[in-house]
């Protein structure tokens, strides 16, 4: 199998498995005061420091959750609870569906920040009355990197709370989050275990809990901490911080090879120049994106038609619609990772060279 869907989930790293192994099945609750519980608490705090270091945050501000969706709800709904009824929430038109969903649940007005044809956020569209701005660091479908510094500067004009979904960017980019109030990450997007995420509150202050009924996570998220998962998350962040430059060089070489080959096959690139090297989104004119995904799957090659949470949907991509793309049903996403090889890229391009002409003919019929 050739796996080019790392944006959906990335294979677990060996170092992560090794870090988690001592905690699988071990009866240790970090909230307990006995020796076993305190050993678990030490492991969790070590992971907290590793996670914070990846985004230059304060370990005291790390709130572990069951995933990025929960973390986004925690931040958006918690921050919104502090706003006045006259204030609004601004989210970009290309956010992950869980962000828009969380914003709509607050009951406050939701302003949509537009993007240009390259997928870049129109910072000037952020309204003056806004109390909360939610913008992703890099898009999950196109890989387009957003100017978080410019967003933060605009938000400071109104004193707005700034929330950044860095799920796709944190392990791939060295970004400055100094003007951001909360950053969200997910373990399984960087070779960690599924079912673990976090929100990093940059000031470490108290914050309204989404899940209540316990004092865990400094009162910001009730529920017993998943020790093995959190330890794995910490290990994945430590590896990402250590290897980020090497991984970037690797993904840049792969992207150069992949994008050149796709261009030769007549594919149209989606997004401007500022994109993650690890993510390539294209449209093959006259071919449905889902048809390409299915045809490659039959060859043992895994790619995506869009966000994994929307898998199976035949609706046009909301991201491509927001970009006013002329073929919002045609997007095909290739996302690479540390385990991807040049041989994987070459085999994929070879398969596409055979399949795309057939798919165009089938579409024409």
Give a verbal description of the structure.
This protein is of the alpha/beta class and 365 residues long. It folds into two domains: 2-7 and 244-364, Alpha-Beta Complex (Aspartate Aminotransferase, domain 1); 14-239, Aspartate Aminotransferase, domain 2, CATH 3.40.640. It is 38% helix and 14% strand. Helix 2 (35-54) runs parallel beside helix 7 (227-264) and helix 7 packs across helix 10 (342-364). The protein is globular. The model has no long low-confidence stretch (mean pLDDT 94).
Spell out the key features of this protein.
single chain; Aspartate Aminotransferase, domain 1; Aspartate Aminotransferase, domain 2; 2 domains; three-stranded antiparallel β-sheet; 10 helices
Largest sheet: 7 strands, mixed
CATH level-4 homologous superfamily of the largest domain: Type I PLP-dependent aspartate aminotransferase-like (Major domain)
Number of strands: 12
CATH topology-level fold name of the largest domain: Aspartate Aminotransferase, domain 2
User: Any idea what the radius of gyration is?
Assistant: 21 Å
Order of helices and strands: EHHEHEHEEHEEEHHEEHEHEH
Helix fraction? 25-40%
Strand content: 5-15%
What is the distance, rounded to the nearest whole angstrom, between the alpha carbons of the first and last residues? 31 Å
How many distinct domains? 2
Low-confidence spans: none
Shape: globular
Mean pLDDT: 94
Name the quaternary structure: single chain
Q: Give the CATH class of the largest domain.
A: Alpha Beta
Strand order of the largest sheet: 2-8-7-6-5-3-4
The assigned structural class equals alpha/beta
Which architecture of the largest domain would the CATH scheme give at its second level? Answer: 3-Layer(aba) Sandwich
Helix count from the secondary structure assignment? 10
């Amino acid at each position: 199998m050739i796996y080019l869907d790392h944006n959906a989930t990335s294979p677990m790293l060996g170092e992560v498995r090794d870090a988690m192994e001592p905690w699988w099945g071990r009866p240790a609750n970090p909230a307990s005061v006995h020796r076993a519980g305190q050993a678990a608490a030490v492991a969790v705090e070590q992971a907290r420091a590793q996670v914070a270091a990846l985004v230059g945050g304060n370990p005291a501000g790390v709130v572990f959750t069951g995933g990025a969706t929960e973390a986004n709800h925690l931040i958006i709904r918690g921050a919104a609870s502090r706003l006045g009824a006259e204030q609004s929430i601004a989210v970009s038109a290309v956010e992950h569906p869980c962000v828009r969903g969380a914003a709509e649940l607050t009951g406050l007005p939701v302003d949509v920040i537009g993007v240009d044809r390259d997928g870049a956020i129109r910072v000037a569209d952020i309204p003056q009355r806004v109390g909360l701005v939610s913008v992703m660091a890099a898009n999950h479908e196109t890989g387009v990197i957003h100017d978080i510094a410019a967003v933060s500067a605009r938000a400071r004009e109104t004193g707005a709370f700034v929330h950044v979904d860095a799920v796709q960017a944190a392990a791939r980019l060295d970004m400055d989050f100094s003007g951001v109030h909360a950053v969200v990450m997910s373990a399984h997007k960087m070779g960690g275990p599924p079912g673990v995420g976090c929100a990093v509150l940059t000031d470490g202050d108290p914050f309204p809990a989404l899940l209540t009924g316990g004092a865990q996570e400094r009162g910001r998220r009730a529920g017993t901490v998943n020790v093995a998962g959190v330890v794995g998350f910490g290990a994945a962040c430590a590896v990402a911080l250590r290897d980020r430059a090497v991984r970037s060089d690797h993904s840049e070489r792969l992207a150069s090879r992949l994008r050149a080959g796709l261009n030769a096959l007549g594919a149209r690139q989606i997004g401007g120049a500022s994109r993650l090297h690890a993510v390539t989104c294209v449209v093959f004119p006259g071919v449905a994106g889902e048809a390409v995904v299915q045809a490659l799957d039959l060859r043992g090659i895994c790619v995506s038609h869009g966000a994994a949470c929307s898998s199976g949907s035949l609706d046009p991509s909301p991201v491509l619609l927001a970009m006013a793309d002329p073929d919002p049903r045609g997007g095909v996403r290739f996302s690479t990772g540390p385990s991807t090889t040049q041989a994987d890229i070459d085999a994929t391009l070879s398969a596409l060279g055979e399949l795309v002409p057939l798919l165009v003919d089938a579409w024409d019929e």
